[in-house]
Write a structure and sequence with these properties.
The structure holds two protein chains of two kinds.
Chain A (H helix, E strand, L loop, with lengths): L10 H4 L5 E10 L2 E11 L4 E5 L6 H8 L7 E6 L2 E2 L4 H5 L2 E4 L11 H11 L4 H11 L18 H13 L5 E5 L7 H18 L2 E6 L10 E6 L2 E7 H7 L5 H9 L13
Chain B lengths: L2 H9 L8 H21 L1 H22 L17 H31 L1 H6 L5 H28 L9 H26 L6 H14 L7 H7 L1 H9 L1 H12 L6 H22 L12
Chain lengths: 267, 283
């Protein structure tokens, strides 16, 4: 595992163990190889975009990081805690926004948040305090008593993002959180996440196939056909590819002009 | 524990492990959510009650004269057919509730909300057992409402029976809920769940002692009698029947307990990401 190099590090560096360390991960569905020896890191405090077209393996990777599936080959650590050895310790430091909606539409927003808090062992009182903290200044604060089904798609997504922050995680995973939303809602989501990241000081892995969601200061991992093609800052990747923009760099790496036009990967 | 993990933990101030209070909060949260869902689905509550009441009010009245019931344990005298089938109807409530819970797990998995539960940092077996107990709690509420209505229909077991039946209801509810949970891990699409109705619920219910004593079935077909004896639902019904009269049917208790362990163990294995069936199929 790549995290083994931590053995020789002094404590000060161990403190800076990556928020997420994915080392040599491969995963198959039957004979179909979805991830092939994937390795990358999300440094603490970074906003890392996992950039890849549909079918690149992003959702599979998220299912492995959240331990919905066990890793078939390779290892994953969250803040130095191996997901295989200490899943509880790793998962308690992780907040997730899945691609599919996961709110209970029959419950109010407050009830959805309280349920999530309970699943992490947080009392109703702590949940109320956290809700107030996270939603301070947000228009969602006025809708806590409303049933989830009365919210728009963008608002539902924002509630899911708030929910992911409820148990004060150190790493947030977002699996294409803006899919299916209009441009205005997408901008709101991106702004909401970046606001919360600043406020809470967490690390982020943001899976997307939309290049315009990436900022200059972000780190990028390019995933294509189940393989990592590039990893680094936006500037590094653009420079390495001799391109002028991330879009050009991506096109150079993958041969794709548009991310959403990628063909289904069949090895 | 590896050296890496130890080093990283030393460098991170976060707490290790979970306290009893955290387990309790998580359990209470799962029960609370299941209760809320049940309250929000009023039609589910009504249909859960109407089904056994129809059997009690109409079927039992119609068949009272046709299906004579001789004195069988735990009864010490001749009883009305309505009295005989009451434990079977309680079993029906718990059977349908167990399957309803598993149906909702399939639905939750399809809609993605199951992921919310499964990515909780608490152990997965604990989450599944909590969800199971939450479903049992809901089924017991339904059973006691049924008891209250049946009392006006002159189905009146001894007063102490309402108390002594509770442990039996918990155990039978656990067995049927665990079976439902195991089935939910095998059924990957909501549409396939109709098959569960035809191949699990109806055979389990009709090939049991819920509607007629097994000696009557033995008179008709020895093979069917053996099938009914092998049916765990028969033993759940008998466990409840005896408990309702302050008695313990030890064989039924042993079989229901064993089946609960078996079904629950299977469900936990099936939902285990390391060995389970869930991870082998793409969702």
């Amino acid at each position: 595992m790549g995290s083994t190099d931590l053995r020789d590090m002094p404590d000060t560096l161990v403190r800076a163990a990556p928020a997420l360390d994915v080392v040599g991960v491969s995963h198959s569905y039957g004979s179909r190889l979805a991830l092939d020896d994937v390795s990358f890191r999300v440094p603490q405090g970074s906003f890392t975009a996992l950039l890849g077209p549909n079918g690149a393996g992003k959702s599979t990777l998220f299912s492995l990081i959240t331990r919905l599936y066990n890793t078939q080959k390779g290892g994953i650590s969250i803040l130095g805690r191996s997901l295989a050895e200490k899943p509880g310790e790793a998962l308690r430091r992780l907040g997730v926004v899945f691609q599919a909606r996961t709110l209970d539409l029959d419950l109010s927003i407050r009830q959805n948040l309280a349920y999530h808090a309970a699943l992490h062992g947080l009392s109703a009182k702590v949940a109320r305090t956290r809700t107030a903290q996270i939603l301070e200044g947000s228009d969602l604060a006025d809708r806590l008593g409303d049933k989830a089904r009365t919210l728009s798609g963008g608002q539902l997504r924002r509630v899911e993002i708030v929910r992911a922050f409820m148990h004060s995680p150190r790493l947030i995973l977002l699996d294409e959180p803006t899919v299916g939303l209009d441009i205005g809602s997408r901008a709101e989501i991106v702004a909401e996440v970046r606001r919360l990241v600043r406020q809470e000081g967490v690390s982020v892995l943001w899976a997307t196939h939309l290049i315009d969601e990436i900022e200059e200061s972000d780190r990028v991992v390019v995933l294509h056909h189940g393989k990592v093609l590039a990893e680094g800052t936006v500037a590094d990747i653009v420079e390495e590819q001799g391109a002028s923009t991330v879009r050009d760099a991506f096109a150079s790496l993958t041969g794709l002009v548009r991310l959403d036009a990628a063909p289904e990967f069949v090895p | 524990m590896s050296a890496i993990t130890e080093r990283a933990e030393a460098a991170d101030d976060g707490p290790a492990g979970f306290t009893f209070a955290q387990y309790w909060i998580c359990f209470a949260g799962i029960v609370w959510r299941e209760g809320l869902r049940f309250l929000h689905q009023r039609e589910r509550f009504v249909s859960a009650l109407v089904r056994p009441l129809l059997w009690l009010f109409i079927f039992a009245a119609g068949f009272r004269q046709v299906l004579g019931v001789s004195i069988v344990a735990p009864y010490q005298t001749y009883i009305l057919y309505e009295v005989y089938i009451t434990p079977g109807l309680i079993g029906m409530i718990q059977l349908f509730n167990g399957m309803q819970s598993s149906l909702s797990m399939v639905y939750d998995r399809e809609t993605g909300s199951m992921k919310t539960l499964l990515v909780s940092p608490l152990p997965r077996w604990f989450l599944l057992v909590s969800k199971l107990l939450a479903g049992v709690a809901v089924s017991i509420v339904q059973v006691y409402v049924f008891f209250a209505i049946a009392w006006f229909w002159e189905v009146r077991p001894p007063a102490i029976g309402y108390l002594t039946v509770l442990p039996a209801l918990i155990l039978s509810g656990l067995m049927l809920g665990a079976l439902g949970m195991l089935l939910s891990s095998l059924v990957h699409q909501l549409e396939n769940f109709a098959g569960v109705m035809n191949f699990v619920i109806f055979p389990m219910y009709f090939a049991s002692s819920a509607l007629y004593p097994l000696w009557r079935i033995l008179e008709s077909s020895p093979a069917l009698y053996k099938l009914c004896q092998a049916n765990p639902f028969t033993h759940a019904v008998e466990l409840v029947r005896f408990a309702l009269y302050g008695q313990v049917n030890w064989m039924a208790l042993g079989i229901v307990f064993g089946c609960t362990v078996l079904f629950l163990g299977g469900a936990i294995l099936a939902y285990d990401p390391a060995r389970g069936l869930i991870g082998r199929k793409r969702q």
